[in-house]
Amino acid sequence: MAQYYKLFGACRIPKPQRDGVICYAPDQPDRPDHIVVVYKNHFFKLRVYDEEERSLNPSQIEEQLRAILGRVETRAPPVGILTSEQRDEWAQVYPLLRQDPANASSLDEIERSLFVVCLDDEYRPQGEGLSPYAGQMLHGAGSGFNSGNRWFDKTLQFIIGRNGFNGLIYEHAPAEGPPVVAVTDHALEYCAKAAAAAPTATAESPTPLSFHLGPPVLDAIERAKKKLDGLIGDLQVEVLVFDSFGKNFPKSQRLPPDAFIQVALQLAYFRLHGEPCASYESGSIRRFQLGRTETIRSCSMESDVFARSFDDSSCSASEKRNRLIAAVQAHRRYTDDAVNGRGVDRHLLGLKMIAAERGIPLPELYKDPAYGRSCHWRLLSSQVPAKQELVMYYDPSVPDGYGVCYNPLERKMLFGISAWRSCQRTDASRLSDSLRRSLNDMSTLLASTVTV
């Protein structure tokens, strides 16, 4: 539960060598009572609680948001795009930005706010389907669109698009994905059921947050724009809505849905690349105090045997079924070990960090090429289940890898898949097609055979 208290009133702060995180807990006497709204790169402070801690009702908030829209006509310099910079670069610019008292005050209000609401300008992407809009939520679609209409250091940013596409982006330092999705589910359910309420709080007009930008900061903004636009141009994002079945099918076969999906990912990757790869799935260890994640190594001997045999005509259907089930069971065993504190990767990382902090020579294990290959995550994945039809996505962790996040609903599955266009080996669209095919083929195999 601790991570739920780190979502609101939290922000990452750029610092040399290692960033900091501020978080205002709900029981603190100076807890924030406002949100920050960004429109056309202009920032506004909007109090959502009055002096007596009464919250504004939805109609009052809508009125304030409309007031902001009416006060802004032209775009401001995209100071928010600085938060997309490489962290050491941003840590150098941040003190320059804070030198001006007005800037320092504005930064404090942004960092202290409960969350940020981004009111985006019109965005008409090239291409069809959901995938282009996934990019709008992830990065704002570039400096020419809405990438400056963000504060990427903020833990929670809710994005409202003129095109009707809405979403959120969150900064990963304070919390994992499941608490964020749980809050999203709650918010959407509340919006669907909430009845109109009479105003009880006293509303204040939104307060502009000004920035005075000198030449060094303006130059830094231009550099950040070029870098981010380059990254956005390189990042390929695909949304796969798989509607042949959902988690209902693997459950009907008495198989854990997550393990079934992970084995399908292994088959999809093998079909594309002809080999297995180091595969990371995020496993939650929130059951432990201050626990975050442990690595579930999804590529196993069993999954490799299954993937290699699936398209082998000399292997019988019943044997393929047995190998599929063995791969699923192996994944389930590893998952149980990882989430119960018996994983290996966090332990090894801890030992490596201790050696670095104490000036101890790096143990030979970490220099072994096999260890390096085993941690080169070409498949970076996570299950973030939600009640609503939504899916998260992120970039790959290595230049020749994929990022895959998924939400298995009862009768459909949603996947957010990413890859770098600069890598000739990877293609998010091809992996999406291969995954769709693999899921269908695996279900057909299970439905048409019996275990022997």
Architecture overview:
The mean pLDDT is 93. The chain has a 6-stranded mixed β-sheet, with helices on both faces. It is α/β, with parallel strands linked by helices. The protein contains 13 helices and 14 strands. The chain is globular and about 70 Å long.
Blueprint of the fold:
Layout: E1 10-13, E2 20-23, E3 34-39, E4 42-47, H1 58-71, H2 87-98, H3 101-112, E5 116-120, H4 131-139, E6 156-161, E7 166-170, H5 177-193, E8 207-209, H6 215-234, E9 235-242, H7 248-252, H8 257-273, E10 279-284, E11 293-297, H9 301-310, H10 317-342, H11 345-357, H12 369-374, E12 379-383, E13 402-408, E14 413-420, H13 428-448
Parallel strand pairs: 3-5, 5-6, 10-12, 12-13
Antiparallel strand pairs: 1-2, 3-4, 4-8, 6-7, 9-14, 10-11, 13-14
Helix pairs in contact: 8-9, 8-10, 8-13, 9-10
